[in-house]
Amino acid sequence: MDRASANEQSLASHLALVACRSGLGNGHLVNELMRVVYLGWFLQRAGYGNCPAGQFRIAEYAVETTLAHAHECGEWRLPEEAIADFEVLLALYDSQLASAPLHEVLAAEQKLRAFLAGTSSSPIVVSA
Fold first, then answer.
1. The dihedral of CA 14, 80, 123, 50: what is its sign?
2. How far apart are CA 65 and CA 42, in angstroms?
3. How far apart are CA 56 and CA 10, in angstroms?
4. Given this model, what pLDDT does residue 1 score?
5. pLDDT at 128
6. Looking at residue 24, what DSSP letter applies?
7. Are 60 and 34 in contact (CB under 8 A)?
8. pLDDT in tens, 98-121
9. Where are the domains of the chain?
10. N or C: which end of the chain has fewer CB within 10 A?
């Protein structure tokens, strides 16, 4: 992946977190954060990263909670207790974008599309 594209994706993700952290998010920005969670997971499964699976699940749950809260009252704010987990995952994603070859990023995006088209509730597998 070229540096400019990686920087653009990284910036979009970090801005989404800032907005959603402060309650200024929206559906698009929350979806951007979920995209980072899932792409980060798929890239980690391909050998780029070693964050605990539970950290991905915490972030996934925080996005789901944010969506439910937004539908109830219109506020798009991530739970404060999940911010640190998102910061770790964004740092991982930045590292992945810097180190993974383009074909791995494209493969992760294909896996994300397949997941979204399917019926599974989550692609993240947490071992017992």
1. positive
2. 22
3. 18
4. 65
5. 55
6. B
7. yes
8. 999 999 999 999 999 999 999 999
9. 3-117
10. C
- Give backbone dihedrals phi and psi of 24, rounded to 5 degrees, phi first: -105, 20
- Judge whether 33 and 26 are in contact, CB under 8 Å: no
- Determine the Cα–Cα distance for residues 113 and 90; give it in Å rounded to an integer: 20
Identity of the residue numbered 87: E
Q: 16 CB contacts (<8 Å, ≥6 apart)?
A: 25, 29, 30, 32, 33, 36
CA 70 to chain CA mean position, Å: 18
β-sheet bridge partners, residue 24: 76
And the tokens for 86? 């998102």
Residue 76 phi, psi dihedral angles, 5° rounding: -105, 75
Q: Which distant-in-sequence residues (6+ apart) come within 8 Å of 95 by Cβ?
A: 48, 49
* Tens-place pLDDT, residues 50-95: 999 999 999 999 999 999 999 999 999 999 999 999 999 999 999 9
Contact between 104 and 55 (Cβ < 8 Å): no
